[in-house]
C-alpha cells in the first residue's frame, strides 16, 4: 500500500472517530439527548471507549488473518481514540455527575466496585498513550514496548467489567462486548499455542 | 501539505491549476470516500441513538380536582413539574424495553380496551372490576408528587387518581389481611419485553397494609390531566411517593390481600440490592451506588435526596422503631 493511501486512510479514521463526539455535541446543543442528558453523554462516551478498545485489539488478528500488514499503521490512532473517549467519559462523570467535586469523585471511586475497575482501565491507558510515539517505541525497544502495551488487554477487560457492574439488570450489551473480547483473546491464545509447537521459529511478526 | 507561497511572484491566471487537474480522479474519489464514511458513521450513530419523541396524547380526565395546596398532606409540592415530554420518554418499564428511551416507542400501540382488575384474597367482598367501574369509586384528584428512582434520578409528576385506600375499603379487607400484593398484566404478545427473561414475569409488588391504606398511596390513572400513556403504566398504576419508583407497579390486573409478606420482583432478582420496603433513604446506599444525591430530570446539577423523599412528616411514624438499614 502506498504511503499516500495510508495517510488518506488515517485521515479517514481520524474523521470517523470524531463523528460520534461531534454528534453528541450537536445533540447536546440542540437539547436532543433525551430526559437525562448527563447520563446519556456519560454512557455514550463510555461505550465509544469500549468500541475503540475492541477495534484496537482487532487489528492484530485481522492483520494475521488477511495478511494486510499495513493495518498495523492504524492501531495507534484507534488506541488513542479509546484513550481520548475514556478521558472525556471521566471528565463528564467528574463534572456532570460529581459537580466538579474532587472529594466526592475520589470517595466514590474508592467505594464503588464498578468505579475502581473503571479507574483501573483509565489509569492503565495513561502509560500506553504516553508511550505511543515513534520516539518512545525506539527509546524503549520493541520488546519492552510490546510487553508494556499488553496492558491494553487489561484496559479492555476492566472496561467491560466496569460496564457490566453498573448495569441494573439487562446485561446483554456488556455480555456482547465480553463475547467479542473473548473471540479476540481466543484467537491470540490459539496463535500462541500453535507457535510453541513448531520446531522452527520464524522471524518476529 | 500546504506549500509556502513565493511572495515575490504574483500568481498569474496561467499558473492557476486547472480545476480539472486539481480535482483529479484520485482526490475526488478520496473526498467521496471520506464524506461517505463520515455520513455512514453518523447514520450508524443516529440509528443507535435516535432523537425526536412526540407520540399521541391520551384523553383528558374529566372532573379532575386541582392539587391541594395544603402542605401537611403532601398532596402537592412547591417544586417545578417535570415536563410532560420527559415524563413520557424516560421510563423504566421492562415489560416493553430495558432502555428508558425505548419504552415509549415500544409501548405506543399498547391497547387497554376491556381492562379488568381483580381485587381478591382476604376480603369480605372480593370482586373483578371493569376499569370504568373502578375509576368511579372516587373522583379523580390531582396529586403532585416527587418521584425518586432507585437509579438516583428524580422527577416531579402531576398524577391523577385517588388513594388506594378507597378501593380497598370497597372490598372490605378481613382482619387477618396484613399485606397487599399487586400484579402486572402478563401478555408477551402485547408486552414484548416479557419475551426476554430479564426479570421473572409477571412483575409483582407488595405493600404492608398500613402503607397501602396511607392517604399518600395513590392508585393513578393519569398524569398532566390526561389518561396514563402506555409507557407510564396505562391504564392503572400505583404511586407511593416516599418509596423508590420500582414499587410503583404499572398496568395492574390483580390486587390480592394476604396474610404473609408477598414476593416482589426486584427483591427477588437481587435481594441484597432491593428490599421489600424500598423507602427512599439518602443514608442507605445501594450496594453499587450512592443514594445521597439525585439527578432531577430537567435540571443541571444534582440535588440532595430527602429522607422518605421529603414525606418524612407524613410517613415516618409507619416505621417507628424499625432498623431502616436492615429493612431497606
What pattern of helices and strands is seen along the backbone of chain A? HHHHHHHHH
Mean pLDDT of chain B: 92
How many E strands of chain B?
12
Mean pLDDT of chain A: 92
Helix content of chain B: 10-25%
Number of separate strands of chain A? 0
The computed structural class of chain B is alpha+beta
Portion of residues in helices of chain A? over 70%
The CATH top-level class label of chain A = Mainly Alpha
Largest beta sheet of chain A, briefly? Answer: none
- Name the CATH architecture of chain B: Alpha-Beta Complex
Strand content of chain A: under 5%
Outline of chain B: elongated
Q: Over the alpha carbons, how many angstroms does the gyration radius of chain B reach?
A: 27 Å
Derived structural class of chain A: mainly alpha
Number of helices of chain B: 9
Task: Write structural notes for this entry.
The complex is a heterodimer of chains A (205) and B (328). In chain A, helix 1 runs antiparallel to helix 2, helix 2 runs antiparallel to helix 3 and helix 8 packs antiparallel against helix 9. Chain A has a single domain, classed as Four Helix Bundle (Hemerythrin (Met), subunit A) (Up-down Bundle), CATH 1.20.120. The mean pLDDT of chain A is 92. Chain A contains nine helices and no strands. Chain B is an alpha+beta fold and 328 residues long. Chain B has one domain: Alpha-Beta Complex (Sulfite Oxidase, Chain A, domain 2), CATH 3.90.420. Chain B contains nine helices and twelve strands. In chain B, the strands form two sheets. In chain B, strands 3, 4, 7, 8, 9, 11 and 12 form a seven-stranded mixed β-sheet that branches. A five-stranded mixed β-sheet of chain B has the order 2-1-10-5-6. Chain B is elongated, with a radius of gyration of 27 Å. Chains A and B meet through helix 1 and helix 2 of A and helix 2 of B.
Amino acid at each position: 500500500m502506498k504511503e499516500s493511501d495510508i495517510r488518506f486512510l488515517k485521515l479517514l479514521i481520524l474523521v470517523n472517530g470524531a463523528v460520534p463526539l461531534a454528534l453528541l455535541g450537536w445533540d447536546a446543543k440542540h437539547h436532543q439527548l433525551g430526559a437525562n442528558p448527563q447520563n446519556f453523554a456519560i454512557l455514550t462516551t463510555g461505550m465509544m471507549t469500549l468500541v475503540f478498545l475492541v477495534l484496537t485489539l482487532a487489528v492484530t488478528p485481522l492483520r494475521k488473518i488477511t495478511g494486510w500488514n499495513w493495518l498495523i499503521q492504524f492501531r495507534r490512532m484507534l488506541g488513542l481514540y479509546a484513550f481520548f473517549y475514556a478521558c472525556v467519559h471521566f471528565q463528564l462523570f467528574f463534572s456532570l455527575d460529581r459537580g466538579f467535586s474532587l472529594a466526592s469523585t475520589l470517595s466514590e471511586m474508592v467505594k464503588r466496585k464498578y468505579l475502581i475497575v473503571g479507574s483501573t482501565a483509565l489509569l492503565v491507558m495513561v502509560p500506553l498513550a504516553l508511550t505511543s510515539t515513534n520516539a518512545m517505541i525506539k527509546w524503549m525497544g520493541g520488546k519492552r514496548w510490546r510487553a508494556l502495551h499488553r496492558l491494553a488487554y487489561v484496559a479492555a477487560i476492566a472496561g467491560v467489567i466496569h460496564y457490566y457492574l453498573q448495569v441494573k439488570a439487562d446485561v446483554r450489551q456488556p455480555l456482547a462486548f465480553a463475547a467479542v473480547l473473548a473471540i479476540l483473546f481466543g484467537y491470540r491464545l490459539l496463535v500462541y499455542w500453535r507457535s510453541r509447537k513448531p520446531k522452527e521459529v520464524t522471524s518476529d511478526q | 501539505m500546504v506549500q509556502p507561497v513565493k511572495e515575490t511572484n504574483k500568481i498569474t491566471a496561467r499558473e492557476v491549476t486547472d480545476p480539472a487537474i486539481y480535482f483529479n480522479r484520485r482526490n475526488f474519489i478520496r473526498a467521496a470516500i471520506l464524506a461517505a464514511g463520515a455520513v455512514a458513521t453518523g447514520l450508524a450513530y443516529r440509528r443507535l441513538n435516535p432523537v425526536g419523541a412526540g407520540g399521541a396524547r391520551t384523553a383528558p380526565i374529566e372532573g379532575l380536582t386541582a392539587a391541594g395546596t395544603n402542605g401537611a398532606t403532601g398532596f402537592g409540592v412547591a417544586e417545578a413539574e417535570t415536563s410532560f415530554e420527559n415524563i413520557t420518554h424516560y421510563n423504566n418499564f421492562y415489560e416493553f424495553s430495558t432502555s428508558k428511551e425505548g419504552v415509549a416507542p415500544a409501548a405506543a400501540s399498547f391497547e387497554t380496551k376491556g381492562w379488568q382488575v381483580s381485587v381478591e384474597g382476604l376480603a369480605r367482598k372480593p370482586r373483578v372490576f371493569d376499569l370504568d367501574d373502578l375509576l368511579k369509586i372516587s373522583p379523580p384528584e390531582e396529586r403532585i408528587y416527587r418521584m425518586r428512582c432507585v437509579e438516583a434520578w428524580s422527577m416531579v409528576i402531576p398524577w391523577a387518581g385517588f388513594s388506594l385506600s378507597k378501593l380497598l375499603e370497597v372490598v372490605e379487607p378481613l382482619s387477618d389481611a396484613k399485606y397487599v400484593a399487586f400484579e402486572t398484566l402478563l401478555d408477551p404478545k402485547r408486552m414484548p419485553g416479557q419475551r426476554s427473561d430479564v426479570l421473572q414475569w409477571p412483575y409483582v409488588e407488595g405493600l404492608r397494609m398500613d402503607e397501602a391504606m396511607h392517604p399518600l398511596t395513590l392508585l393513578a390513572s393519569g398524569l398532566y390531566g390526561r389518561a396514563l400513556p402506555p409507557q407510564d403504566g396505562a391504564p392503572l398504576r400505583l404511586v407511593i411517593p416516599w418509596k423508590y419508583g420500582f414499587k410503583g407497579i404499572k398496568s395492574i390486573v390483580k390486587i390480592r390481600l394476604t396474610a404473609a409478606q408477598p414476593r416482589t420482583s426486584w427483591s427477588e432478582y437481587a435481594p441484597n440490592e432491593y428490599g421489600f420496603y424500598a423507602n427512599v433513604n439518602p443514608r442507605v446506599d445501594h450496594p453499587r451506588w450512592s443514594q445521597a444525591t439525585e439527578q432531577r430530570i430537567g435540571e443541571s446539577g444534582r440535588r440532595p435526596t430527602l429522607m422518605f423523599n421529603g414525606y418524612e412528616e407524613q410517613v415516618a411514624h409507619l416505621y417507628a422503631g424499625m432498623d431502616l438499614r436492615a429493612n431497606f
